Amino acid sequence: MAMDKTFDAGRAEARIYAEWEAGGAFRAGANASRPETFCIMIPPPNVTGSLHMGHAFNNTLQDILIRWHRMRGFDTLWQPGQDHAGIATQMVVERELAKAGNRSRREMGREKFLEKVWEWKAQSGGTIIGQLKRLGASCDWSRNAFTMSGAPGAPAGEQGNFHDAVIRVFVELYNKGCIYRGKRLVNWDPHFETAISDLEVEQIEQDGHMWRLRYPLAEGATWDRPVEWDDEGNPTRTEPCDYLVVATTRPETMLGDTGVAVHPDDPRYRHLIGKHVVLPLVGRRIPVVADDYADPEKGTGAVKMTPAHDFNDWKVGERHGLRPVNVMTTRAAMFLKDNSDFLADAQVSQEALALDGLDRYEARKRIVELAGEQGWLDGIDADRHMVPHGDRSKVAIEPYLTDQWFVDTAKIVGPAIDAVREGRTKILPEQHEKVYFHWLENIEPWCISRQLWWGHQIPVWYDEDGNHYCAATEAEAQAMAPGRSLTRDPDVLDTWFSSGLWPIGTLGWPENTPELQKYFPTDVLVTGFDIIFFWVARMMMMQLAVVEREPFHTVYVHPLVRDEKGKKMSKSLGNVIDPLELIDEYGADAVRFTMTAMAAMGRDLKLSSQRVAGYRNFGTKLWNAARFAEMNGVWEGHATRAAPPAPEATVNRWIIGETGRVREEVDAALAAYRFNDAANGLYAFVWGKVCDWYVEFAKPLLADPATAAETRATMAWVLDQCMILLHPIMPFVTEELWGLTGQRAKGLIHADWPDYGAELADPGAEREMRWVIGLIEEIRSARAQMRVPAGLKLPVVGVALDAAARAAWAGNEALILRLARLDGMTEGAAPKGAMTVAVEGASFAIPLEGVVDLAAETERLERSLAKLEKDLGGLRGRLSNPKFVASAPEEIVAETRETLERGEAEAAKLRGALARLAAG
RNA sequence: GGGCGCGUAGCUCAGUGGUAGAGCACUACGUUGACAUCGUAGGGGUCACAGGUUCGAACCCUGUCGCGCCCACCA
Whose CB among A56, A410, A832, A865 lies 3.0–4.6 Å from A920's, allowing a Cys bridge? Predict the structure, then answer.
């Protein structure tokens, strides 16, 4: 076996992954004999989705937790799957169909269209699975779930029956009175022609206009309208006015106005309360009502009320008995001709208005035109304001009055709040708990019906009289309504209603499956903050409502991956970094390690490819350490061993202790979800300790027959530990090395996670190594400062060594000579023209006369001395402060004292060296 | 309007009371048999600003400035 110079990630990753899969490494139950279980539910990506950075990050963290627990012997399940993503998928498939020149969804009909969606799913729904595999995600793919599995029309091969669980929950919640049907104002998406929930609305700031309209006062009423103002905007002159002025950004809604609101204390209008205005065009007499909602500061202080097309107006309307009058159809066009609500009041002929059937924006123009012509347009102001948009369709949504199904969230929210408040479920970082509480404590009813086709059809049937029957099947519904002719509600459920059941649904509920018993409640949910409301809160509410248990004990909310400049990655900005391209270029391990190292809790991470390159080099570094070992016969006859060897050489004892330390560090970091600490700790250990020092120290030891064998054993063990500890973060390169470097009973993915710790530390060895490393660093530093040619070996004179220093030197002479590039030591007085370096309990003089520029060195020493003196001054000041000595913890005081003593000794040596240099 | 977070080296960021850290970038030297995807050494920071608490503050409190995000807001 001869190892290649580097790890060829591009070639090896697919092979390694295939081996894991073929060996059933990801299967739940692989550790079935163990009592502890560990389960993570993947946040199911949209079946339309492809892997973006957010997924890559999110799934890397999950995979780390999963691999870590698997190696620790937990019976581990990482449940994968995809979400059917109602609107998103319907949109994608419609677009695809249009591209292929097919008939539209409507022409095609529901059944045929759904067939097409399933076809599409079969064809390209697995894309993201392949991409997750490239990342190294060790999900149990044999259990892959889908939120629409088992739905009518699902192809035979589709495993699972998520549909039944969803329907069953709907029926249960309905029967408990937690789901109801109601005619309410909803966010209507005119593009998809469906209701959407509050959460699916996003506010976008847009330039627009504010139109001021005049509504004539009835009963001969007037008010004093200001016509002149002073510099501060206070009115200086008023004139009696026989109309009210209302301002609106949507003038077309005026046809549905059924009131005008003013503030009860507004002196301008107080006398008008209870009087009426006559709505232009329609002639409807509508009341002036007093309501705190009307803000005297805004607009004209009088605000038109359109309860059927505005959420605030709806509330005001309820308080004052203002009737909602719908003036738009589902397509957001005017419909007046057949609108009985509207016709009841209309006193103008529809033809004269010429509004019927107009799109809302056309209608807006027409209304403004009419207002101008008829003299009730008071003015137009430019206005920039927020306009609600459908988050998928990107069109302005229209509040619209329809019959919809709602979850009465107020009834099921309590346990979800309590679970977090009482710590049964923890949200990390904690700051997110506040947001969670705030949302849940102010929760609104959840509109769950969607006028779409792709989704779980609502299990409700209507009879001829409009009575409804909720049941799991049509037969059951029919049994509830004997002899009546039933039609099923055509609407489907909000996608999030089904994904809200992801934890129990994927585990086979309502059957009490072994998986459900074993893995539920699951352990940790790893997710981004953007779906805390959409998904996390709903899972909490729904699991608690249905099975009365929290779905997970921890929610780890990870930060957002942004681009190098800190901008959110988005297609429209064109700043999207494709994780697959990064994987192609640097390998999955490098991408994973980068994200892990940057995953500090609660802070967004800015990703740059340069950083990824750096961590790719880290993998190479480990690879080369193993390669060095191979060249030195370290792996010959090596077999996995759990316990560390018991070597005699200081260096070997030292590195074993360091390994124990890093293992504890990694475990503590992962247990606290401090992924970055785990990654950075390992990086510092592998590169900074093992490669920089241990491998270098090992070179002379391997050459010496007295220490070669134990050094080979130690190095093999230490490198094994590096592979094991790094495996959760860098699974591919470590697995490859594992296979190349010894007799292995099982793959690294199954290797036993170590449980040694600080007890491996050997204080004597550590002290000695600290001394040796300190000395070498001092000498190197001095050599570099003095520009001693790197190839030139120098002698060194030990000056006044104490016994410990002499012993440390004697025990490590070969190491020191080699790494400090010295050619031998004598003891005695420092010669003239020598530079002195100080380490604990010893000082060494390096004769430099004739070798280098002594004047420059003098300068350096003086600088060091000055800096040292400054630091020492601070320390002396602190120690001479009685309050510090009295109130600081003892160990801090002791530490300060030691630091001062060491510093003073060093300063003395520097002074000595300076004196000698001056003499020379 | 309400809430949350951030401001530390040129850049990206760690660091939750005890003399400021990493990676990258930069400078100098170096191909010494694991690694140039490398090694050694070095320069570089009044921790946004102002107050306060404390023996001691990057860290805790108050305020100011700057940046980001979430929620609400279609008069």
Answer: A832
Contact A461, A477 (CB under 8 A): yes
Query: Which protein residue's Cα is closest to nucleotide B32 at C1'?
Result: A791
Determine the distance between A405 (CA) and B9 (C1') in angstroms: 58
Give the tens place of pLDDT for each residue, A301-343. Answer: 889 998 888 988 988 888 888 888 888 777 777 777 767 667 6
Q: Can you give the distance from the CA of residue A416 to the C1' of nucleotide B68 in angstroms?
A: 30
3-state secondary structure at position A727: coil
Element (H, E) at A676: helix A675-683
Q: Nearest nucleotide to A783 by CA–C1' distance?
A: B41
Interatomic separation, CA of residue A790 and C1' of nucleotide B31, rounded (Å): 12
Tokens of A374: 């008829």
Predicted model pTM? 0.91
ipTM for the predicted complex comes to 0.94
CA of A885 to C1' of B50 (A): 31
| Nucleotide B41: closest residue by CA–C1' | A784
Full 3-state SS string of A40-70? EECCCCECCCCCCHHHHHHHHHHHHHHHHHH
The mean pLDDT of A795-816, rounded to a whole number, is 88
- The C-alpha atoms of residue A703 and residue A730 are separated, in whole angstroms, by 32
**Pairwise CA distance, residues A494 & A406, whole Å:** 10
* Distance between CA atoms of residues A887 and A345, nearest Å: 83
Kindly state the DSSP code that residue A334 receives in the 8-state scheme.
B
Q: For B34, which residue's CA is nearest its C1'?
A: A628
d(CA A746, CA A23): 10
CA-to-C1' span, A895 to B8 (A): 26
Query: How would you class A831 by CB atoms within 10 Å of its CB: exposed for 0-12, middle for 13-18, buried for 19 or more?
Result: middle
Task: Kindly report the number of other CB atoms within 10 A of residue A617's CB atom.
Answer: 14
Residues paired with A205 in a beta bridge: A386
pLDDT digits (tens, 9 = 90+) for A892-914: 888 888 888 888 888 888 888 88
Q: In 10 A of CB A208, how many CB atoms?
A: 15
Residue with tokens 């520097």: A910
CA-based R_g, chain A, Å: 38
CA of A864 to C1' of B42 (A): 13
Distance A873 CA to B43 C1' (A): 24
Residue closest to sugar C1' of B2 by CA: A438
Would you give the distance in Å from CA A818 to the centre of its chain? 48
Overall average pLDDT of the A550-575 stretch? 72
Residues 6+ apart with CB under 8 A from A9: A586, A587, A588, A589, A590, A619, A732, A733
Distance of A609 CA from B25 C1′ (whole Å): 14
Task: Specify the nucleotide whose C1' lies closest to residue A297 (CA).
Answer: B75
Helix axes A731-740, A609-631, angle to 10 degrees: 10
Mean pLDDT value across residues A666-671: 92
Q: pLDDT at position A30, please?
A: 72
Residue–nucleotide distance: A418 CA to B74 C1' (Å): 36
d(CA A346, CA A766): 94
Helix (H) or strand (E) holding A11: helix A9-22
Q: How many CB atoms lie within 10 A of CB A650?
A: 22
Q: Which nucleotides of B are covered by protein (CB under 7 A)?
A: 3-6, 12-15, 18-19, 22-24, 28-42, 54-56, 68-75
Smallest CA–C1' distance to B72, residue: A203
Nucleotide at minimal C1' distance from the A781 CA: B41
Q: Which residue is nearest to nucleotide B42 (CA to C1')?
A: A785
Q: Which long-range contacts (CB under 8 A, 24 or more apart) does A357-361 make?
A: A357/A333, A358/A333, A358/A334, A359/A331, A359/A332, A359/A333, A360/A190, A360/A252, A360/A328, A360/A332, A360/A333, A360/A334, A360/A398
Nucleotide B73: nearest residue by CA–C1'? A386
